[in-house]
Specification:
Shape: globular
Oligomer: single chain
Helix content: 10-25%
Number of helices: 14
Structural class: alpha+beta
Number of strands: 28
Length: 685
């Protein structure tokens, strides 16, 4: 098997760079067929402003990929995938499209959401819909209809092979790679942070489909346990644990698991390395996202024609878009530019498991879960830099034709600086200097926010234990209105009407981006401050990782970390740089983008994934003195509600003037601020 694998003659990371220079002609891979299974009017033909009625198309897209084409050379294991009679590799995916029914009213601009784990988030993020409906049908699924009143064609397509079995999730139905003389086998890893005693651990991450072991008794299987992320691993003897049989739905792999004598204990990290076979060609997901917009832009027979397109990705799929750019996929097989713009939200410095052998796209490598998967990897900045330890020169745009670079917004909350090493996207490798974004980029730090907007008001169940000052796990700072404005600013930029606001993010040069040791967080009685932030490491996945995208070493070797810097805070503990929402400009609380694992069975000094902390200010000076709170009280800051509301209105006017708030959204921000005051004051003015 190893001999066959080495028949790859050109490193897969290099071919994407050379592809535009190669003069050969190749068989055309493309969207070969579109089947519309449902076509229906939205909400019975409701009009969305000047854009009129919208229609929804639901169906399947069928693709063919030429394994010999330079544009596909970066797709790991594509050369080992089964081919049809024409020598092409086939795949298909579910899709959904919303577009103005009257073609004359369309804006001819596609909003292509790369769905996070098969879902659809755009209507919740930008239309203020109540939920992220998998099949938006009811009025509440469309919120206020912002993207629709703008006339955008909204496209979702399946790109991920391992999404859970759930109606409405979009999946890429791709093939497995297999050698002519037998199956490809290799190591697969699964790990679990166990926060309560359990009897069974399932192989699939967050219920996703999993790779199955080649056999229950293969000698290559290894289960270990440890007490911390970098703590020594202890091997659990093979006769003390077993695989659970795959039965019924488990045949798909997503529910297969393991059990151990005595059960799995809270406070421990368990890690399983096992041998599997038949790796899916996961990198086809990158080509599918490329080809769906190329079809919409350039095919005369397109079911949803447009002239330009913007990609949106959030969290996992924001990282996907960074990976997409890194591997040069914004040029299609005919040498044409694909995406004109990208809104890459809450990706931090990450990429991900989107294109390697035995890739599990859901695995995401957080500070205290899913450890050390290939997510936070050099390079981080779009500009090429040298890593002095490895000697590698690389950049996020190094493989993409300069003529085909999209206009890019990177939007990160405070959490991504703490939990996804976001500082690395705009600093030097050694963490000592700022690195300016390129002309086609903007970076916006949504100050103080957690990974996604937390619930308000907080519940008693979220009140954190042992705090001298009341503090709630979960940060309700609402940056969604800022994100709505930025989406339309990007549309304007792509269409050439007006440039967007200047980048707004913390910088080393002005002291707003600092090492953790330099954080000036106020000393609050009973409030523990973080002593760690997420770090990106120089990882060793084995000798074939960089050249062929094959992991030979599991678990990987963990080398020296890259420096992670965090945004500096003001006297209240709120982040002082970036785009500051009304909640931060006229604060009622300290909004931290981090939350410690207090109350968990282990690693209480580590960070909780995704969540921040909400620490309200004292209402009166008497209450402040009783708590020993060094922060000013609401009474001292504002005197009463009238002054507070005037400061909120002033903050919204500033944000509208800066381009970070839509004029029509100002009243929403003011109403939300009033509700926060009323809750905190218990209805008192």
């Amino acid at each position: 098997m190893a001999t066959r694998d080495r028949r790859i003659l050109v490193p897969f990371l290099l071919v994407g760079l050379l592809a535009p220079l190669l003069p050969w002609e190749w068989a055309e891979g493309e969207v070969v067929r579109v089947v519309v299974d449902r076509r229906e009017d939205l909400l019975g033909g409701r009009e969305w402003g000047d854009r009129g009625a919208y229609e929804k198309l639901v169906g399947r897209m069928f693709f063919a990929f030429d394994p010999g084409h330079p544009s596909n050379a970066a797709i790991v294991d594509l050369q080992w995938a089964p081919r049809n009679a024409s020598g092409m590799v086939e795949a298909w995916a579910e899709f959904m499209v919303l577009q103005p029914k009257n073609s004359a009213r369309r804006r001819n601009l596609a909003w292509v959401e790369v769905g996070n784990r098969g879902g659809k988030a755009s209507l919740r993020y930008f239309n203020r819909a109540a939920v992220s409906a998998l099949d938006p049908t009811m009025e509440e699924d469309f919120g206020d209809g912002l993207l629709l009143t703008e006339g955008l064609t909204i496209i979702w397509v399946g790109w991920q092979w391992d999404v859970p079995e759930q109606a409405g999730l979009l999946r890429l139905h791709s093939t497995a790679a297999r050698l002519a003389d037998g199956a490809i086998q290799g190591p697969v890893r699964a790990d679990w942070t166990v926060d309560e005693d359990v009897e069974v651990l399932f192989l699939g991450h967050r219920g996703h489909r999993a790779y199955l072991p080649v056999s229950a008794d293969h000698p290559g299987h290894l289960l270990t346990v440890r007490d911390g992320r970098l703590a020594p691993r202890q091997v659990i003897p093979r006769d003390q644990w077993r695989f659970l049989p795959a039965e019924g739905e488990q045949q798909a792999g997503q529910m297969s698991g393991i059990a151990v004598e005595g059960g799995f204990r809270a406070g421990k990290i368990y890690e399983l390395v096992y041998v599997s076979q038949d790796p899916r060609v996961a990198g086809l997901g990158l080509a599918v996202v490329r080809d769906v917009l190329s079809y919409a832009k350039y095919r005369l027979d397109s079911q949803f024609p447009v002239r330009s397109g913007i990609a949106f990705g959030v969290s996992q799929t924001g990282r996907f878009l960074r990976h997409f750019l890194y591997q040069g996929f914004n040029t299609d097989e005919k040498g044409r530019k694909v995406f004109d713009g990208m809104l890459i939200h809450t990706a931090g410095a990450g990429r991900g498991s989107f294109n390697h052998r035995f890739a599990q796209p859901s695995r995401d490598a957080h500070r205290y879960s899913a450890f050390f998967y290939p997510t936070d990897l050099f390079p981080f900045t779009s500009r090429t830099q040298r890593d002095p330890l490895s000697g590698r020169d690389d950049g996020l745009f190094a493989r993409q034709s300069p003529d085909h670079l999209p206009l890019v917004f990177y939007t990160n909350t405070g959490y991504e600086y703490w939990g996804r090493a976001a500082s690395l996207i705009h600093t030097s490798v050694d963490g000592r200097q700022d690195v300016a974004p390129m002309e086609n980029e903007r970076i916006y730090h949504l100050a103080g926010g957690q990974h996604s907007v937390g619930a308000f008001p907080p519940s008693e169940e979220t009140l954190m234990p042992g705090q001298g000052i009341p503090a709630y796990r979960g940060n309700p700072l609402d940056f969604s209105l800022i994100l709505r404005s930025l989406a339309l600013r990007l549309v304007d930029w792509v269409e050439g009407r007006s440039p967007p606001p200047a980048s707004a993010y913390p910088r080393i040069g002005d002291g707003t981006l600092v090492p953790l040791s330099g954080l000036a967080f106020p000393s609050l009685p009973g409030i523990s401050q973080p002593s760690v932030a997420h770090e990106a490491y120089r990882m060793d996945y084995g000798p074939r990782w960089l050249s062929e995208g094959i992991i030979d070493q599991e678990p990987p070797g963990v080398g020296a970390p890259f420096p992670s810097l965090v945004p500096q805070v003001d006297g209240l503990g709120n982040e002082m740089s970036g785009v500051r929402s009304p909640e931060v400009r006229a604060p009622l609380a300290t909004y931290t983008p981090w939350s410690l694992r207090l109350g968990y069975p282990g690693a209480t000094d580590e960070l909780v994934d995704f969540l921040g902390t909400f620490i309200p200010l004292s209402r009166t000076e008497e209450e402040r003195r009783d708590r020993g709170d060094p922060r000013p009280s609401l009474q001292a800051l504002y005197g009463g509600k009238d002054v507070y509301m005037e400061r909120i209105r002033a903050a919204t006017r500033e944000l509208v003037r800066e381009g970070f708030l839509l004029p029509s959204d100002a009243f929403i921000a003011v109403e939300a601020a009033e509700a926060r005051w009323e809750w905190l004051m218990g209805g008192e003015g």
